[in-house]
Write a structure and sequence with these properties.
mainly alpha
Length: 707
Amino acid sequence: MEPLTVILIVLALVVCAYMSWNIGANDVANAMGTSVGSRALTLKQAVIIAAVFEFCGAFFAGDAVTDTVRKGILTVDFSDGTVDAVLSQDIAFGFIAAMMAAATWLTIATRMGLPVSTTHSIIGGILGVGLILEVKHGTSLIDWEVVQKVVMSWVASPVMGGLLGFFSFMIIKKLILENENPIDRSRWLAPVLAFPTFFVLGLALQFKALKGFISKAATNGWIENKYDWLPVKENGVFDPWADNAWIPINSIMLAAVIGAIASLVLYFVLRRIDINEEKRGFRGVERIFVWLQIITAAYVAFAHGANDRSNAIGPMAAVWQVLSSDTGELAAKADIPLWLILLGSAGIAIGVMTWGWRVMETIGKKITDITPTRGFAAEFGAATTILVFSMPFLAVPVSTTHTLVGAVVGVGLAGGAKAVDFRVFGKIAASWVASVPAAAFGAIVLFVASGGESLNMIVLLPLSFMAVGYAIWKSSGEVHVEDALSDVGGDGHSVTPFELFHAHAQEVEKTVEHMLEAVNMACDGEDASEAIQATIDAELVADNVKSEVRRLALNDMRMGVQISLDDFLYMVTRQDRIADYAQNVAEQLAFRPLFDDEQAKVNLKEMAKAVSETVAKYEDAVEALRDFTISGQTKAAETKLAELIKEVNLKEHEADGVEAMAAAYVFTNGEDAPLAAMHMYRVLQRLDDVANACEKAANAFLPILNR
C-alpha cells in the first residue's frame, strides 16, 4: 500500500470518527432531552444511559441501514461483482468529501442554532458527489427510487411518530389520568403500556443483533429455517411476497415472551414504590411513569444508535473497501470490519460524553410541559418508528430529530401539551430544506477541489478541520441549540409556569398562617410582634417567588393550556394580593391593642378561622390547577378544579357572614371606646379582604376552564 494511500485512509478514519462524534454530540438530545426536561433523569444519569445504549444500538443493530448508506443511494453496475478502479476511487473520494461536509455542517449549524439532521446531512453530501460523478463519468449513478424512499420516510417518520405518540398518550389519559384512582390504575396498566416497547425491542434484537447467530444456527442445522426467525430476503433484498415474509413466527413469539417477562418484572417493581402524601394524585402517576420514561429513553438511545451509526460507518465502509483493496475496486458485498464498527459506535458514545451533555442540558431546560407520562408517549412513538424504519425489510435512514418532533406534536394534539406552536414547522421545513443542499454543496466543493488526487485530499482535509476549529473558537461559549424538539415544547425551564404558580400559592398560604397566628395571639393578650414580623418576612418571600413566576411566564408564553399571557399574569397578581392583605392585617395589629371586649375577640377569632378555611380551600384549587395542566387537561381534573373554585366562593361567602356579624357586634358595643372599636373593625375588614382576594384569585382560573 502506498504511503499516500495509508495517510489518506488514516485521515478518512479521522473524518469518520468526527462524523460519529457529531452524531453523539448533536443528536443525543433527541434520545434524552425529554427525560432531562421532565426530570425523570438527572443530566449525569442521562449521559451514562445515552452513552451505553447509543453504543449498543450502533454496535449490534446498525447493519441494515449501514448497507443502504454504503451502496444503496448510489447505484453502480455490480454485474461483475465489482466496479472498475477509476470509478471506485472517485466514489471513495466522494464519500470522504460527503462525510467531511456533513460533519462540518452539523458542527457549524449547531453553533448557529439551526435544527439539522445528521441523516439529512450525510445523504445530502452523497447526493452532491453523486451528481458530480454522473457528470464526470457520463453515467447514471444516483438511485432515485432509493432516494425517493428515503425522502418519503422523512415525511412518513414524523407522521408515524406523531400517531404513535398521540394514541399512546390518549390511552394514558383515558385509562389512567381520567380514572378516580389514577395511581392504583397506573401501577398495573403502566407495565401493559411498556409491553410494546419490550416487544419491538425484542424483535429488533433478533432481526438485527442476532441475525448472524440465527443464520449460523440454520447453517449448522440447529434450526430448520432461518426465515422462521428473520424477514425473508431474496438476493439480499427483502421480499414481501415470499412465504412467511412478514410473519417470522418464532421471532414474534420470542419477542412476546421477552416483552411479557420484562413487563412482569416492571409490575413488581412498581408495586413496591411507596407513593406518599406529597406524591398523591397526578404527581404520583408521574412518579410511576418515571420508570417507563427511563426505559423508553434507553429505547430511543438504542434506536438512535442503530439508525444513525450508518451515517458515519456506511460511507467509511465503502472508502475502506476501495482504498485498502489491492485492485482498488468497490465490491457489491463486503464485510464491515469489527474495528470500524467499534470506531463508529465509540465515536457516538464519546460525542455523548464530551459535547452531548451540553446540548442535552440546553434541550432539557428548553422543553416545557414535558412530564414522564408525556415523555413516555413521545419517546415510545419516536423509538418505535425509528426501529421500524431501520428494520431489514425497510432499512431506511430516518431523521431522529424530526421523528421525535412528530411524536411530541402528537402528544400535544392528544391534549398533553396544548401550547404546541405550529409556527415551528416553518423552522423545521427550513432546516429540512437547508441541510441537504448545504452538505451537498460542501461535498461538491471538497471533491472538486481535490481533483480526485490523494495528495490534494490529504491537504484539504486538515484545512477543513482547521476551518471547523476556527468556527468553534469564534463562537466559543454557551451552546445554543434551538432545535425542532426544544421549539415544539417552547423555551422551557426545569419547572412549568403553573408548577411555580403553585409554589407561589404555598408561600402565600404561609404568609396567611403567620398572620392568623398573630391575630390569635393578639386576641389572647399575648405579644404578637414575632408573628407580625414573620408575616412581613413571609410576604417578602412570596413576592420573590411572584417575580420568578412572572419572569418565567414572560420568557415562555406557551403555558400548556389555552390561556393568554395577560390572563396568567392577572392570576399571579390576584394571588399575590392575598399575601398583601395578610401583611396589612398584621400591620394593623401592630398599630394599637385590640378592642378590649371578650366577645369581640371571640368573633375576630371566628373570622380568622373562616379566612383560614377560605385560604386553605384556595390552595387546594391551585394544586388542582397544577394537576390539571400536568395531567393532560383531563375531564376528571377539570371537574375537580371547577368544584374547588365553587368551594372557594362558598367559603368566602361564609366569611362574609362572619364578618358582618362581628362588625355589627363591634358597632353595637363599642360606643365607650370608639377608636378601639374602629380599629377592630379595620382588622375585620382587612381579614375580609384576604377572603375576597381568594375568591377573585380563584375566579381568575375560569378562562382556563371556559377555553
